[in-house]
TrEMBL record, chain B:
Keywords carried by this UniProt record: Cell membrane, Membrane, Transmembrane, Transmembrane helix, Transport
Pfam family, one: BPD_transp_1
Membrane topology, as annotated: Multi-pass membrane protein
InterPro entries in the cross-refs: ABC_transporter_permease (IPR051393), MetI-like (IPR000515), MetI-like_sf (IPR035906)
Stated family: Belongs to the binding-protein-dependent transport system permease family.
Chain spans, region Disordered: 1-25
Superkingdom of the organism of origin: Bacteria
Residue stretches spanning the membrane: 34-63, 92-117, 129-151, 175-199, 220-242, 287-308
Protein name: Sugar ABC transporter permease
UniProtKB/TrEMBL annotation, chain C:
Organism, scientific name: Agromyces soli
Family membership noted in the UniProt record: Belongs to the binding-protein-dependent transport system permease family.
Membrane topology according to the record: Multi-pass membrane protein
InterPro entries for this protein: MetI-like, MetI-like_sf
Protein known as: Carbohydrate ABC transporter permease
Record keyword Secreted present: no
Keyword line: Cell membrane, Membrane, Transmembrane, Transmembrane helix, Transport
CDD domains in alphabetical order: TM_PBP2 (cd06261)
Residue span, ABC transmembrane type-1 domain: 85-279
Keyword Transmembrane helix: yes
PANTHER family: ABC TRANSPORTER PERMEASE PROTEIN MG189-RELATED (PTHR43744:SF12), ABC TRANSPORTER PERMEASE PROTEIN MG189-RELATED-RELATED (PTHR43744)
Subcellular compartments: Cell membrane
Membrane-crossing residue ranges in chain numbering: 25-47, 81-109, 121-142, 154-179, 209-231, 260-279
Amino acid sequence: MKRSMARGAATAAALSLLLAGCSASPSSDGSSGSASDELTYWSMLTVDEPEVPILTAVFDEFEAETGIKVNVQWQGRDVLQKVMAGMTTGNVPDLTDQDNNRLQGLLANNGAARDLSGLYERTVQGEDVTIGELVGDKYDPLTKGEDGAYFMLPFTLQPYVWWYNGANVPSLTEGAPSDWAGMNALLAELKAEGRAPLALDADHTDYDRAMVATAIVRAVGPGKLLEAVEDPTGEAWDTPEMREAVDLFVDWAEQGFYAKGYDSSKWPAIQTEWAQNKADLLFLGGWTPNETRGYAADDMAYRAFNFPAVEEGGDTAVPVALNGFAIPTKAKNPEAAEQFLAFLYAKDPMSRLTTETLSLTVRSDIEVPADLQDIRDIVDQNAIYGVNDQVPAVVPNFDTTVFQPATQALVTGRLTTDEFIERMKTEQKQYWELNG
Amino acid sequence: MSVLESERVGTDADAPGRTARTAATPRQRSQRNWFILFVLPAVLLYALVLIGPTVFSIGVSLFQWNGLTPPEWRGLRNYEILFRDPVFLRSLVNTLVILFVGGAVIFVVGFFFAAFIRTMRGRNFIRSALFFPFIASPIALSIVWGVLFQYRGIVNTLLGELGIEPLEWLSSENIFKMAVTGTIWVSAGLYLTILLAGIDQIPPMYYEVAELEGASAFQRFRYVTLPLSWDVASVAAILWTIEALKLFDFLFAFGGATTTMPPVEIWNSSLFVYGQTFGDQVPAYRFGYASASAVLMLLLFGVIVVLLRRILRREPIEL
Amino acid sequence: MSTQNTAGAPRRAIRRSTPGRLFGWLPRTVIWLFVGFNLVVLAITLLSSVKTTKDIFAAPLGLPTTWEWGNWSTAWSNSGFAVGALNSLIVVGSASIAVVVIAAPAAYALSRMRVRWAKQLSTAFVLGIGIPPHIIIIPLFIEFSQLGLINSKLGLIIVYTGVSLPFAVFLLTGFMAAVPKEIEEAASLDGAGPIATLVRIFLPTVRNGLLTVFIITAVSLWNEVLIALTFVQSNDNFTLGLSLMSLLSAIQYSGADYGLLFAGVGIMLVPMLLLFILLRRFVIEGMTLGVGK
């Protein structure tokens, strides 16, 4: 490699002569900046998203207040791949954001995330309260690494719930099903009225798996799905509880509860239909109102209920993904980044984000718009656990190549309960033999 | 691929190597210097961008490496696991289906069309229209392909006007077929163009003679068109092999959202590499394993090209 | 023609057989259908770019109920396509020129100079066509990080030039080899050196080949995404392909505005469409000459 590198330098020199006039644009990463008059933020958002103008305004206010300029790059959802790529060379931002699974799997597990315990002690700009007091300890299981250090500061919450339009299914507003029998009765009733009870973009296997995983966790309990997945023999799948959860989806597919074409559309086609009242229930994360309001029916009133317990009194913990911030250990201006977060978590910017982009934040003391009231209550009244029982974070490869395809086959009605259980057992055993 | 070159290089110099060794005249030496000067920039860049990294990847394929922590020696274990990994095997099969089934359709249709377009009115227009997908971004084409064929997509809407019930083009059973069909659609124009131009080089005289002898359209194709455009076709076949093995963008954008991998049903070897490295929600960064699969594909490419040349070689036809 | 070629054809009276005509009618229809399909796709793409999402699906082939020219200006200014277009123009333009400038002398030397290793070197270049980008992207990234060429247009230009070289050399070698020996001999009798021979004799003779290489390189780099995705980090270095990917993800996360998406597709497509319409003779014929020789 060394020789080709020397040659590379020569070629580069030759090329830059050849291409005079289009040399490398100066890096805007602020790597040369002195201690703390600027900070670099690589965002998971892309430039077209509704949060962007609000955050841009916050950057300006922050600069006016502290003199620290925020250099932002709207990288999109693959932002951490870029951060990781920069690790080898030290070209990393001072601040980045993504969901807890990715932050943990990529940054924390590689020792690349700064311990934010100090940040939790920091007082929020202009308020008498620390960030840690605001956030509380509810999310600690998802934000602390194995070493007990905070690798992320949660910002917005994405609880996975059943969404419906209160104007479209008014009967639900009086009381949602509290167990699976009730859920099945509701679906059958809606179906009998000639409606499409369930909306699902089954081509988006992430969504298939989220729905199936939630039912399984209801049946076996939080933490137990991950345990089952980590069983190298695969036998952990063959239990009555697992079968009960799988039965649910075999049944739903058989009964034809899903909107027509759910198996042969391109996301977000079916969720668009749901938003236009062509289907009734949609199991999706807390981003749903923000994502669908652009094309929602005029009478849309976003309402939600928690995935029912198997039986009355059973487990009702809410599957949650957290979006939040992390500071790479190699960041050059970590202090400025923390200072910015203390500024961002103040009531005013958080309120603006909540109302204008319909984001549920970790600040439960902020008033939320009506569209978010249900999920605010669901999160506040129940325990939480990591959505999909953290399977995608702990064994991403298994999730993509074994679990997601199997759940897709299940929800599209191509497997019986026995076939699904058998498939998981065999493929999981094989997976651990190859990757153990 | 080296066989490709034999026709091309040294057509007029029988054995330049040997002459140079016995006695290097000043003229030959000066020619060698010029030669070096002319090829040096290309060689340097080639080494920097392609050869160096390829050699590096072959090395990495013997390790377990996530790009961050020091690599761990694995020997050939990555390769052993690949042959037992159902995901890889499926990707391999998909790749071969795209290569051979897609290739067969493209060349049969290509030859068939080309033989007729030759005599059709508006042939230049036809040629350009069929060439169009080649110049469009595969990402854009795959978006269009999805919008066309999804359940409430444009094709089903049009079928609805004819009173036909919507078809489930993109169900998980059909999605790989649709991906292959889309790939054929995108690529056909290029190969059609190449074949057509190969056919154009055939002197019209031969067709006239064939018609005089009463040869049917099929016979004209079998005994004039096919043998006389064989060389062009075999080069086109090798180009298709390259394209088919590298295929990525169209499948990637067709199968999924921008941040998730397409379903494993449509993975080919390129998507496999991507899935094992950067592609997943929490990327796997299994660079050793991914490199091993890429090395296998490079070997496969070499083998297929050599075989193709064997199969496609014909007695040279003297014009 | 050798007798073997017609050996199987029985001699018949000179007439056009009826089956032949029937046989000819069907394929022509199929061909026109295929042509029609491509034109419809092009029409749908361009029409959809000035429609609302509702219109696109309500009447895919109909004219827009309202002409949403705003889609184009929104994509252009709000979604970063203006920056992307400029970057793509700089990066793809420079790389395509560099490819021609570097590949031409190499192809000339490889095909016309009697030097040891010429053959092996050509083979080595051809092998490079088969190297998939995925196998090189990780080491390449590390290598370029150390050279400080990540997230720079220059870095991207170098990578693009490098990956395009093998095919360019391959194609141009074909063109150069086809130049009649007599022309070259006349030049050397005039006492022209290698540079003069290359510049004054060969380059003008294979003009179409150079143009073909330029266009094919430009088209494939214009549409390239994977390498750009890895090598570009800041928004001000985004290429058009990255802008389109970014827009695709944005409309998926914050509302399905297919009109806007198609406007983005249009911005990416139209320059190549114009280039192709202007120069299609060279692309189509050049491709064949290069491959077929």
